[in-house]
Amino acid sequence: MPLDISLIRNRLDAASGVLAINSPNAVEDELVTKLLLEVAQPLEYKPYYWNLSKSLREVSLTRDKSGKITGIKKTPVPDYTTDNPVTGLFQFIRDCKDHALFLIANVQEFLPGGMQPNVFVLQDLIDLCREIKRSDKRIILLGDRLRLSHHFDGAIFEIDNPLPTEAERESNLEFRLADIKAQSKGKVKFNLSNQGRQNLIRAMGGITKEEADDLLLEAAITDKAITDGTGEFIKLRRSAKLRKRGVDILEPPPVKAVGLGNLDRWLERKAKMFSPKAQEYGLDLPNGCLIVGPPGTGKTLTVKNMAATWEMPVFVMNIGRMMDRHVGGSEENMDRFLKEIESQTGILFIDELDKQFAAIAVNALGGDGGTSQRMFGTFLQWLNDKREKRIPIFVAATANRVDHLPSEFLRDGRWDAKFYVGLPRQKARAEILNVHLERRKIELSKDAIARIAVATDGFNGAELEQLVITCAEAAFIADRPGQVSLDELIEAAMVAPVQSRNPDEQEKLRQLEDWARQSAIPASLEADETIETAEYSSDRRARF
């Protein structure tokens, strides 16, 4: 949803003395231009702009001969001097006789929770909020991650300026492409298909309009062309920007998860629900799924495959990285992370949900001052709002155990589906082995692979991969790369450390399977998958 300019104008007209716009592009001219053009001019305010480095400036829009806006002119205020840049600004506002609008950037750094908190600045701003309501002057605070303490409750009206929506990105892209074409005068070639255009629109998600414009211009100058490959160029640059803001992007997998037919088919069906046609018919966007299973069974790989199939970015939630020693910092980091991603169509990946939110159970009595509980509350509220706001983020969470999960994560309706990924059955083990053998250039017959699959009952996917790696490394060291025999693999399987052979792990697995029978959908297609082999038959039944 774009910035609500009518709300800003209405609040200023209704004697809201001070507004605060929490915006990722608070320091960019794009937002200032919008406020000058759509707020200050219609309401006939004389606009001023302040930040710590530039001090106080009178501001106005500049235009070319055709009337097109070309920028912002910032002129120092005559005879304006002060010993204290912040309190001096506040005093200037008090003394100002103009019908004025003051745009003040990043003053929150001097308020509680900022880099240089100052109690005198705090009190001075509280007093100014009261005084300005009775004047014809108004203030708009601009900031990214605005932290307004409870002292301003009722005194400052807060508004969020979200990142551009997909529709806004599409509109801006068309404008920028035409602008580049006009400015380059044939020096930049255009060869962009409809699919390439859609990829560009998606690639520009999660960054500000000005950042997207800069990246598009960089691509045009670097390649002297705008093509279907430009989306990948921008995606790489965007990922670097998002990582700096604490948003990790999951990379595509080197191999594909196999043996999870039920889950694959479900995901294939859900992919269609992101289409514009589905939205035309009023169908809900997919919400998410929980994938539960013992370690090493391919849960994370499945999410990576999902992203590759759906052609969507994967945003990784890392609770540990969000923890902050400052009061309110952890919750703010959580809120910022969610705001960073929600303007995009993508997948939010929470790996090992049971471990990431384990602190909630441990700290339920307030052992960390309630931080974990508040972070959990912030995330749950976002999950609840996601469907109503039609946020196009699919939440994919994995867990090794359900007994460590807060009950709120398991209630009906929280997920579109809950899947159980158990230890791979015989057929799935053969498919997994084949993937890893091919990757190491080891050629074995289908019958040989089937025999190894029988001999590796109880192995998880990671253990099967390690079995292949161990034998491939031994062959390479022996100067016969890629030459691994059936007997070598069978022999290695007999002595390999397998997690499911541990009695404690067997009990955990039994409890997990009991839960799955009642509460989850099997990720694989059938309960008992077997393949015919000439030898190495097993009388052990495949696990659920």
Write the layout of secondary structure elements.
Layout: H1 5-13, E1 18-22, H2 29-40, E2 46-51, E3 55-63, E4 69-76, H3 85-95, E5 100-105, H4 119-132, E6 138-143, E7 156-160, H5 166-184, E8 189-191, H6 194-203, H7 209-223, E9 225-227, H8 230-244, E10 248-249, H9 261-271, H10 276-280, E11 288-292, H11 299-310, E12 314-316, H12 319-322, H13 329-341, E13 346-350, H14 353-356, H15 358-362, H16 371-389, E14 393-399, E15 417-420, H17 426-439, H18 446-455, H19 461-477, H20 486-495, H21 503-519, E16 521-522
Parallel strand pairs: 1-6, 1-7, 2-5, 5-6, 8-9, 11-14, 11-15, 12-13, 13-14, 15-16
Antiparallel strand pairs: 2-3, 3-4, 10-12
Helix pairs in contact: 3-4, 5-6, 5-7, 6-8, 7-8, 13-16, 17-18, 17-19, 18-20, 19-20
Number of domains: 4
Q: Quaternary arrangement of the chains shown?
A: single chain
Q: What is the share of helical residues?
A: 40-55%
Largest sheet composition: 7 strands, mixed
Q: CATH architecture of the largest domain, please?
A: 3-Layer(aba) Sandwich
What is the number of beta strands?
16
Kindly describe this structure.
The chain has 544 residues and is an alpha/beta fold. Helix content is 45%, strand content 15%. The chain folds into 4 domains: 156 residues, 3-Layer(aba) Sandwich (Rossmann fold); 79 residues, Orthogonal Bundle (Helicase, Ruva Protein, domain 3), CATH 1.10.8; 160 residues, 3-Layer(aba) Sandwich (Rossmann fold); 97 residues, Helicase, Ruva Protein, domain 3 (Orthogonal Bundle). The radius of gyration is 29 Å and the shape is elongated. It starts with a helix and ends in a 22-residue tail after the last strand. The C terminus is likely disordered.
